[in-house]
Structures are given as C-alpha cells and as structure tokens.
Amino acid sequence: MQPLRVFSVAPKLPRPLEPLRELAYNFWFSWNPRIEELFAQLDPRLWRETAKNPVLFLNRAPQSLLQSVAADENYLERLKEARASLEQYTTRTTGGVPFPPAESGQPAVAYFSLEYGFSLSMPIYSGGLGILAGDHLKSASDLNTPLVGIGLFYLKGYFRQYLTPDAWQQERYPVNDFEQMPVVLLKDAAGQPLLVDVDLAGQTLYAQIWRAQVGRIALYLMDTNIPQNPEHLRAVTANLYGGGLEMRLWQEILLGIGGIKALRVLGLTPKVIHMNEGHSAFAGLERIRHYMKREGLSLEAALELSASTSIFTTHTPVPAGNDRFPSDLIQRYFEGYARDMGVAFKVFMALGREDPRDDSEHLCMTVLALKLSRFNNGVSRLHGRVSRTMWQRVWPQYPLEDVPIGAITNGVHAPSWVAPDMALLYDRYLGGNWREDPDCTRAWSLADTISDSELWRTHERLRARLVDFVRWKLRKQMESKGVGRRLLELASEVLDPDALTIGFARRFATYKRAGLLLRDKQRLFSLVSNKARPVQFVFAGKAHPADQGGKKLIQELVQFCQQEDCRMRMVFLEDYDMDTAAHMVQGVDVWLNTPRRPLEACGTSGMKALVNGVLNLSTLDGWWDEAYKPDNSVGWAIGQGEEYEDDEYQDFVESQTLYNILENDVIPLFYDRDHSRLPKHWVRRMKASLKELVPLYSAHRMVEDYTRQAYIPACENFDKLRQNNYKAAAELATWRMDIMTRWSGLQIQNIQTDAPAALTVSETVTVTCEVLLNDIKADHLLVEIYSGPLDTDGRFTSRLTFPMQPAGQPVNGWQRFEGQAQPEDAGRFGFTVRILPRHPLLLDPHALGLIKWGA
Ligand SMILES: *Cc1c(COP(=O)(O)O)cnc(C)c1O
C-alpha cells in the first residue's frame, strides 16, 4: 500500500521572516554557504536532523525561535541582503556562450535523466549519474544556459544504508514527504494539478508535476502517486531503480514519452533535448510522433528533425548496464505506438537493434538513443573510445575511429563541492567571480599566487573538521547498534587530525575494487600502525541491494577496520550520501580510486577532491587517464593504463604498485616538512592541480562544451529545419531517402597518385580518382583521401583525411576528383579514397551511416 499524501499545516512565519520562504524554495542555498547559514545558524542541530531541508526546517522550527529571530535586526539585515542577492542572481542576463534568440521565457534545451542529485534534502539519486545531472543543472544556472530538467519524483528514492553488528549491509527506504520539501506542485488555472498521461498497453498512467527550482533552472519531476491511478500504477515512481524489468520499462516510458508530453502541458517548447543514458530514449520517439501528429510531417522528416536536434550521452561502459527489453514485451507496449507512427513493428524494433535484421535481438535503449540522435558522446576521452568499440555494430561499415560517438568529459560544480573556508581563500586570490566565470582557465590561472601557508593551514583545518565529523558519525552509528561504553569513548578519539588521511568512497561495485588495498593485509597494517609517519583511511560506500559480492566486500573491509590495532586509524562511514561525500572530499589529503580499466566511464569524486586541493591517486581510468601527468606533478597513477586478461594477476600487480606508491612517494612527500612544518613539495602539487586541473574538470567547462559542440548547433539546426513550415526538414528527408537508394550504385575507380615510391615527410602528393555518381550531385558527396601509416600487416594504424574536389565535367556519369595528401611521419604509408554523404543541413557526414570505400 502506497501512502497517499495528506496536506500539511504550514508554519506561521512571522512577517519579517517571509523572505526565508523564498530562499527555502530555491536550491541556490545548496551552493551558497551564506544562505545556508541563515538557516543552519538558527538551530544547527535541527538543520542537520532535517537533512538540510529548509522547508522541513521552517516547519519544525519552534515558533518561539522564529519570533525571537524576527526581532533580531542584524539577522533581518542579512536576510534582506540574501534575498537581494538571489534576486540579482536570478535576473542577471550575462553568462556563458549566448544561444540563438528564442521566444522569451522559452528554454532551448530539455535535459532528461532518471536521477538527480543536487541536494541532500532531495534523495532522488543513487550515485554518479544523478550527482552529475545535479551539477549540470547548477552550472547551467550559473552560466545562464536556457535549460530545463525532466525527471521522476520518487516516493522512496534511493536506499539508506546501515550495517548489522557483523557488518552486513541492510537497506532502509524512508518515504519522502513532498509537501515538506522545497518543491512546488504545478496546477492549472482552476487550481487542479496539471497532469500528463501515457499509455501503458491500454492502461492510462497519469502523473502530476512538481517543480524544483535550482537557481535559475527549473527541474520538473513527475509523480504517479495520485488517486487517478490504480494502486499498481501509483507505484511507478515509488522507487529509484526498484522493481523488475517491466517496472523499469514503465518508468522509462514515463520519463521519455511522459517527459515530452509534460513539456507540452507546461507550455514549454525547447528546440533541443539532451538524453542521458538510454533511460530516456523514448523521448526521441515521442518527439517524432509529435512532429508527425501535430505538425503534419512525414515520418522521415520528423525523424530528421528530431534526430538533428537530439543529444545523447552514454554513461556506461559495461554492457549489462544498458537496458535491453525483449521484443514480446516491447510489442505489448509499442505495437499500437508503431502503428500510430506508420511503421511496421519489425521496423520499429530495428531502431533499437544493433543488427536490424536479427529478430532475436532485444530492444536496447542505448542503441535506440544512438539512432535517434545525431550528437552522441561518452563522458571521458577514454570512455569515448570504449563506446566507439562497444557500439561499432550500429555503424557496421565504419572504421572504429569514425564511429560517430565523441567525448565530452564530465566535470563537477565547484561552488557546490568546495569547502566554504577554501572558497574564501579563492575569493581573495582568484577574485570574487571565480564561481560564475564561464572562463574557468582565466580564474584558476591565479591559483599559484595563493600563499602556501594559508593554503596548507586552511586544508589542515578542513582535515580537523573531517575528523570531527567522522567521530560524530561513528558515534551515532555505534549508538544505533547499542555497542558498549568503551567503544563509544574510543569513537570520540578515532583518527589523528594531523595524520596523512586517505579517502576512498564509492559504490561497492566489483569493478571499483575496494578490496585492492586489502590484498596484502600485513603491508597495509604496517602503514597504518606506523607511529612516526601515520597513515589513516576513511571509507564509505553502498553496495547495490542485490549485489552479494559488494556486500561481502564491505563486510571484509569493515571487519578489517574493526581490528584492535586498526580501529583508531581506519573508519568506515555508513550511508554514503552527498553530505558525507562533501566532508570527505574536503578533508582528506589523498583521494584514492582503483577502478579496473576501462570500466569507469569517468568518475567524478576525484574531481570534487580536486577543487579542495586534495591530490588524486588512481588507476588510469575514466577522467584520470586524461588528467594525470607522468611527472606526478598533480597526483599519482597506479600503473600505466595497462589492460589485463587475468583479473587476479592484475589485482596482484596493481595492489603491489599501490603500496609502493604510498610507501615511496606519498608518505615521504607528506611528511617532508620545512622549519615551519609546511610540506612544501606537497603544497606545490596542490597548487599545480588547482591551476591545471580544476578548470578542465569543472561542470562549467562541461556545460560550455555541450553548449558549443551540441546545444547551439542543434538549436541552429532546428531553426533551419523549421523554416517555411518545416520545408527544410522535408527536403532533408527526401534527400536522405534519395541518397540511401542511390548509394549502393556509387563506384570508385582509377585511384592514382603522382607520388614517387619514396618520398620525404611533409611532401605533398596529389591523388585523383573517378567516381560514378549514379545521379547524385557531386557537391552532395564528401570525397576524401584516407591516409596514414601502416602496420606490418598493411593496416592503417592511424589516419588523416584530406578532402578532394571535383575536377572538370563528368564523362558518362564518371566524375574526376582530385586532392592533396601530406604524410606526417616517416614510415610505411598508405592511402585510399572514401566517400561520405554531404548536405548543408546534415551536421555530421557520419550520421547516416553511409560510407563507400575505394577498393
Ligand atoms: C560524487 C558522488 C558519487 C559518484 O562518485 P564517482 O567517483 O563518480 O563514482 C556517488 N555518490 C555520492 C554521494 C557522490 O557525492
């Protein structure tokens, strides 16, 4: 039985405190310590108990307290200032890269994600994907990006973790009380909740819509727990990643199809959608159907329009992490939908199949998204490469490096993750604008002017604060288990505020290899028990509720931490969440990460550590593969990016490397102090990583990359395709169909070059060929010299392409093309010719999957 919410009684805020309510309903407070303090300071304990939820906090605050604050001139003055700064922030018109003009108030981009993590008080995230989405919204807000978010509002959100006395993970699912959260239920003119509906195999699923205001950005969250739905459908938004395959399908139908419909109900007409993970791929379908039904476009034109204005980001390098639905299940839910779009069900299924002819293939949401979007990307350079390999079958004729999946590396929202003390330091040295300056490089270039001792003392204070937090949290954990007095007292003394502190916190997924550190327990033990140069560890993380292996790992780790000689130096904190994450990334000296390459798509917690001057120690996977510098000037790498056949052997080698780095590099460097006890060489690395890495791994940079590379081109494309009642979209569709039918008749012959058998580097060679146009216009073809060095088997090891131009008039349908190539390096060098389709409205010549190779 799902509890249906009842209305709650609003507190009586004394009039002078009314601005607090406004501040409470904008999540801007979650990255503005000055505003957070206005709440926290009233009653710090209540603030913590209410999980930093300002609405709940105001509802629970004793009336007497509110009355007395309402008479505090000083407080009211600060409140007024805070309100004015919110006003100023939300109405400012400057920001990042400007978008093409749109109707006033209309967003350009709708961002879709199944989870969002932007505040401790909104537990509708499970991990990296959600936090990333939250940081994306916050940076979009700071940069004034015209974007809205679409998601689901879960009654139970993600589970809370606690451990039994024998360290076995248990899960609790606290119920969210939406009425007491900083969100607003959207209603129509008659005061009734706005509803969207989607069809679930003949049943109608309704959802109401809540709005969470994240700075300038509106996030719309759909909620099915309403009386219009029968019991089993009310549960669609009960749990984040809960339920079986069919429930997942319902959620994804709601997110994708319901999300597009919700935009319409809200009167929003974004030109572009950004789908994150395959979860939201149905949004692409619904847009196509919308353009067919509402705008009268043909299927082909609607598809061109929708795909040319859709961005898809894949976040998972693990095949099992990509949703796949069997065809009979999809048939039940989408047969009518396909008919409505005018396509046979088999053709519909082919949209989600790597091999469209393989009837046994399930519908893969990632494949569907890839095919319904012309801007596809992974979330780090390495992950881009991995994704091209993983999804190569979607573009079967393509050489791997041309598979149209690019890379935009993730980033973190620095103002959210930086410790307030550090932020003050940055204010002084980088200038007050570092938080919102879209040009991160400019702001952070001043990082090396920060005073060494101030930076270090600030960092030490944060370490001390982490130690306090750990003690408090550990005590609370122990009290709830009813442990004895002696242990409770020890908890208050655990960790040393001056010792080298290493943090490790993440999902306990197998590939993250939390156990790597435990492989040689004796060696770990001697590190931890060293009195002269002590090392201590703080751990946190959840295992998926069904992952027995992950739970076992947690148990092993916790039991190791609990040994008599370790317990003062190794601590596992239960229930990893954004608050614990923030304390950890702000207070440790080293952030440790040990994923098995290449299974970490990007990883972001190391970047959160980065903004606080914390150094990273990690395998070369995800973002660290591109961020690490081999001179160790910004942190350390475990290994050199090797990939192994034998996991067991890899773990052995890499754990040894890890201990070696700790013993030989990290510990000596940390304890190498000058006469004022300052670790000069350590501080130099802190400053180098602030200066070199923070600007690159900032969510501002990420949002600007999406804006420049995808959002704006897609918006411009939308404007072009929409002209003259969508005439251009129809033209592009006709052109595409024509090209598809004519393509196989293209021929290339007579590839020739004037190159001598031996030439020197950088000498130009001329290449010519003849192409049988098969009635395709020459300027609709991109003819290229494809050249590069060859390996000993005569295969290209890398490639450069050079465009060729038509030369002279066609003869009997054969057109001569000519171009120049320039070998870059000495060695064996080869070339061939290839053709791609080209059209002014087609942004990426690779998008259609057509290619013709010279023999
Ligand atoms: C940042 C964060 C994550 C994701 O961390 P990764 O390093 O990307 O795995 C997960 N959970 C919480 C609470 C976080 O703050």
Short overview:
The protein is of the alpha/beta class and 855 residues long. 39% of the residues lie in helices and 17% in strands. A hairpin with a 2-residue loop joins strand 7 (203-214) and strand 8 (217-223).
The major β-sheet equals: 10 strands, mixed
Distance between the termini: 66 Å
The fraction of residues in strands falls at 15-25%
Using the alpha-carbon principal axes, give the shape. globular
* Hetero compounds: pyridoxal-5'-phosphate
| Total DSSP E strands | 28
**CATH superfamily placement of the largest domain:** Glycogen Phosphorylase B
CATH topology of the largest domain: Rossmann fold
Tally of distinct domains: 4
Provide the CATH architecture of the largest domain: 3-Layer(aba) Sandwich
Helix content: 25-40%
Class inferred from helices and paired strands: alpha/beta
Gyration radius (Cα, Å) is 29 Å
CATH class of the largest domain: Alpha Beta
Give the oligomer, counting copies of the same chain as homo and different chains as hetero.
single chain
Q: Give the helix tally.
A: 28
**Contiguous runs where pLDDT drops below 50 for at least 5 residues:** none
